[in-house]
Amino acid sequence: MPHGDVCRTIDYAVKIRVNPNQTGVDTNVKHSMNPFDEIAVEEAVRLREKLKDEVKSIKVVTIGPTKASDTLRTALAMGADSGIHIEVPESAPAPEPLGVAKALKAVIDREKEKGGVDLVIMGKQAIDDDAGQTGQMLAGIRGWAQATFASKLVVDTGKSEASVTREIDGGLEEVRCKLPAVVTTDLRLNEPRYASLPNIMKAKKKPIEKISPSDLGVDLTPIFETLKVSEPPKRQGGQKVASVDELVAKLKEAGITAVS
Question: Ranges for the Electron transfer flavoprotein alpha/beta-subunit N-terminal domain (predicted)?
């Protein structure tokens, strides 16, 4: 059974602004599913379409306030079967990658009684913090194989292994790993589908289990403290010059020494 972690983030099209207290960014804006997690859900659905007899169920997991259930409904409308919402208060700070990994491990442990989890597919990073750590941490604390930044995924259920193609600086790298495993998705793995209206309506009837971090025996309190968040200084406009001599003079005025 594939599992997917879906994260609710500020929509990628929103211009980010620091809040007045400089404790973080303004979150009173449009949110949507993390784009890399959309790719993960799409890949899980495609795997089931290819391996109809082997993929019994797709379950998606999210951690967040009440509104995060909308993200789960989006994943269910794309084709997932059920969801788990680890609910935290609206005022709670965003969980850190290690906390998320521990929560996902606890969910996987619970699923043993229901047939177990063979594959966890998740985005390589969330676009709010760009940490890119949760998948690796989950594989580490679970003792599973991992294949990160997947641009192609092939699962061989007969051999109980996954073949993952990764884009690296020198070209493409193929990694083979035994299941169960954690795979994180890159941009070119697939193009997520748009949920059709009938599937959106069906998603409203699909089950979402709501639990708390304490139900999993997990503490999501951050271990890092953000002291201050500020915007970068605004860039000054450029100037046109008529000659090299004028350029050198302008550089000297700005206190920049030209080196020949």
Answer: 23-220
| Cross-strand bridge partners of residue 84 | 61, 209
Higher pLDDT, 78 or 10: 78
35's CB contacts (< 8 A; 6+ apart) are 12, 123, 127, 187
Short-list 53, 64, 126, 55, CA closest to 90: 64
4 neighbors 192 (Cβ within 8 angstroms): no
User: CATH code at 107?
Assistant: 3.40.50.620
| Residue spans of alpha helices (H) in 69-225 | 69-78, 97-111, 134-142, 197-203
pLDDT band at residue 2 under the 50/70/90 scheme: low
Return the SS3 of 166: strand
82 found inside a domain: yes
What confidence tens digit (pLDDT) does each residue in 138-158 have? Answer: 999 999 999 999 999 999 988
255 falls within a domain: no
Q: Which residues contact 234 (CB under 8 A, 6 or more apart)?
A: none
Range of the domain at 6: 2-235
Residue 214, pLDDT > 70, answer yes
Count of the separate structural domains present in the chain: 1
Tell me whether residue 67 is in a domain.
Answer: yes
Is residue 253 a part of any domain in this protein? no
DSSP string, 35-60: HHHHHHHHHHHHHHHH-TTT----EE
Q: How many CA atoms lie within 13 A of 31 on its CB side?
A: 20
| pLDDT bucket at 234, cuts 50 / 70 / 90 | confident
- pLDDT tens string 174-203: 999 999 999 999 999 999 998 889 999 999
**How far from chain centre, in Å, is Cα 255?**
44
